[in-house]
Amino acid sequence: MPYIISSINVNGVRAATGKTGRGMLEWLEVTEADIICLQETRATDEQTRKALAPVLDAGWHLALAEPGTKGRAGVGILSRREPNAVRIGFGSSEFDGLGRYVEAEFDEVTVASVYVHTGEADTPMQDEKYRFLAELGAHMKAQTRDFVACGDWNVAHTELDIKNWKGNIKKSGFLPGERAWVDEMIAAGYVDVVRKLHPDVPGPYSWWSYRGRAFDTDAGWRIDYHLARGAIAERAKQAVVERAPEYALRWSDHAPVTVQYR
């Protein structure tokens, strides 16, 4: 069946829904998405459900992996139909309790919401990021169903995916090991759906720093991906980054990345 799937790092669900008149709730009122993958909710289950009460009252369903540390991470999946099954984590003793991964089954496809934390080159935080990517990659390779992993990967794959790539060669998010992980997933049969539909062009970027004039000059990063494998990867027909028309109308430092699957 057809799906419209969107992915968005909300940068704190309470803050995003609290921006009345131009916030997340207003976007949810008009989105055509059937499934929405959320990252960095930064809230407990109770707090998230309270923030999203208007859409949950309207019939949306929420699967959530709460943050393991207060105010950090947290991922969820909003869907118009109740999932057939929900799983939090991917069997990792180190990472399953940190609120970085949740997946839900919908008929023939499994959809995952993923948050890969920001690292810092040559630090234990970066080592942790590589461990997370390795375990996540093994889980993704083991999938036998149609599978779409959406999220904030905090990795720009190629020079087309970051405006100032020359200034970030030695920085986390554009390190050779991180970029090689995306190569590895593609070699395993995953399709970077947005890049497939927008080949050989800069971006489309999905994250812009709040500092300086990054948004106004479109000095962004493309770090929010749909990685799809199986028949659904071939069904992707349109992908759009729902960039706010102006800085003042942003409700996150990311923009929703929305893909239509036939």
CATH H-level superfamily: Endonuclease/exonuclease/phosphatase
Helix and strand sequence: EHHEHHEEEEEHEHEHEHEE
The assembly state of the depicted protein chains is single chain
How can the largest sheet be summarized?
A: 6 strands, mixed
Q: What number of domains? A: 1
Q: What is the helix content?
A: 10-25%
The largest sheet has its strands arranged as: 3-4-2-1-12-11
Question: Spans of 5+ residues with little confidence (pLDDT < 50)?
Answer: none
> What structural class results from the helix and strand content?
alpha+beta
Mean pLDDT: 97
CATH top level?
A: Alpha Beta
Count of individual beta strands: 12
Count of separate DSSP helical elements: 8
Portion in beta strands? 15-25%
Shape: globular
Task: Using the 3D structure, state the CATH architecture.
Answer: 4-Layer Sandwich
Radius of gyration, in Å, reads: 17 Å
N→C terminal distance: 7 Å
Cofactor: Mg(2+); Mn(2+)
Binding site for Mg(2+): 9, 40, 152, 154, 253-254
Family: Belongs to the DNA repair enzymes AP/ExoA family.
Protein name: Exodeoxyribonuclease III
